[in-house]
Sequence to fold (309 residues):
Amino acid sequence: MTSHTFPVALLRQNSYDPASLRAGVDSLFAACGIAFARGESVLVKPNLVSRANAGLSCTHPQVVGAVCAHLLDCGVRPLVADSPAFGSAERVAAACGLPEVLRPLGLTVRTLGRPTPLGLPCGGSIGLSRHALEADRIVSVGKLKAHGQFRVTATTKNLFGCVCGCRKAHAHMRLGGQPGGMERMVLAVRAALPPTVGLVDAVVAMHRGGPIHGQPYPLGLLAAGPNTLALDTALYALLGLCPAQVPLWAEAQAQNLPGAGSGQARFVLESPEHFDAAGFTLSPELDPMRFEPVRFLRGRLKSLLHRVT
Fold:
């Protein structure tokens, strides 16, 4: 594993107050040396997972708004978009209140589309959004939360949302039965995308379930970094986890990917010891990665219903 270190900025953030968040985002990006060039096209990729429990399961709209305001001040052309598991990004965004935050900025939410095949190391391909591929850069604005299959997720797994629509469920059916298949696919998606930086909403994280139906955990943390693996690894460690407990982390280490090594985070603001995650509860057992056909069909029906209701 490479010994190179990557800046990770952790910041105490106890509320979703817009002015405080905006100052926090500015501080995080500055501390990490993350700068944006005037005229760049930047995909802002929030976690818009579902209309169910949207107030907790999705990235908080004020965090997304603070990132977009920063980008606009840099002269950047932001595109706020995602491809949720169920329904359109527009409908999920409406459920969590994102359009109301973006409207004063002159921005809207779009669903990532125009799939193009991405060849996978385990064989076959998956449809990755050209909207994502054609951006100059991506800001993955993830939500720190428990996950039934990946145990815990942040900014790297959030990039799976750049896969268009039901192709995500197809991937679970086709690759979920292969040990490490889904993890390798997520990392292949990350590698194919434009340069990506990460920012994590852990002001109120989700534990005791997830990625949709969990409970709030007020961690009081906003974090960012130019390498999503280093950022996420720092958060896994803050939660007291090791690679054997987090499948995506273990696979990234097996591939010797920069940022996945323990100790590769260089903390440029606050240190992990300043945050109390002692009560953050994760399931000891993971759900199977593979979606069985009945579950897949049920999900497709649910998705269709979300489109018309």
In short: The mean pLDDT is 90. The chain has eleven helices and twelve strands. The two ends are 49 Å apart (CA to CA). The chain has one domain: 6-301.
